[in-house]
Amino acid sequence: MERAAAGDDLVRELRTFAGEIEHYIGEMSHHHTMHRSDLTALAHVMDGHEVTPKDVSEALGLSASATSALLDRLERAGHVTRSRSTVDRRSIHLEVTDTAREVGSSIFTPLAMHVRQVLARHGTDELERTAALLAELNTAVRAARRDVRAMDPPQER
Questions:
Q1: What does the alpha-carbon distance between residue 55 and residue 93 come to, in Å, rounded to a whole number?
Q2: Is residue 36 classed as helix, strand or coil in its secondary structure?
Q3: DSSP per residue over 107-125, as a string?
Q4: Cα(55)–Cα(44) distance, rounded to whole angstroms?
Q5: What residues does the HTH marR-type domain cover (predicted)?
Q6: Does residue 51 sit within a domain?
Q7: What would the pLDDT profile of 44-96 be if each residue is shown by its tens digit?
């Protein structure tokens, strides 16, 4: 296969993979009667250290008020707590609760089980190369997002 065709195939498979993940999250958010953005926010908080509301806002592309409403929902549901930073008392940090960890486990364990079965069929070198490639692609996507943010605002029609 030509290099360009192989690249096109890879991009197509990545798009399909991203779509399948979105469908899975959609199904699970429906099953758990949660907003998709709530699940995405929970995953972001679980993955980070000293995550702030601003971090969630930037990660999800939400306004401050939309982020506040989302975090209020998660807090009422017992999924996150907010606490003042010990370093800077003006800063708020988010933490996931045991309830959120249980929900997260019930959501992502079935997916992880299927993914691990696939990963088990591949060698360490292949997995390391793939992880490195995906890290580079993530960097490229973040750069593209920054380019979009720097564009002039759309013109009204």
A1: 10
A2: helix
A3: HHHHHHHHHHHHHTTS-HH
A4: 9
A5: 7-139
A6: yes
A7: 888 877 899 999 999 898 999 999 999 999 999 999 999 887 777 788 899 99
Buried/exposed code over 35-70 (b: 16+ C-beta within 10 A; e: otherwise): eebbbbbbbbbbeeeebbbebbbebbebeeeebeeb
Domain that holds residue 30: 13-119
Does residue 60 lie in a domain region?
yes
- DSSP string across 40-88: HHHHHHHHSSSB-HHHHHHHHT--HHHHHHHHHHHHHTTSEEEEE-SS-
Query: Does residue 145 form part of some domain?
Result: no
Which tokens go with 154?
Answer: 């759309």
Instruction: State how far the Cα of 104 lies from the Cα of 131, in Å rounded to an integer.
Output: 23
Q: Which two tokens stand for residue 145?
A: 């997002």
| pLDDT tens for each residue of 5-28 | 999 999 999 999 999 999 999 999
DSSP H/E element including 94: strand 92-96
Question: Per the domain annotation, does 84 fall within a domain?
Answer: yes
Segment 84-139, tens digit of pLDDT: 877 777 888 999 999 999 998 999 899 999 999 999 999 999 999 999 999 999 99
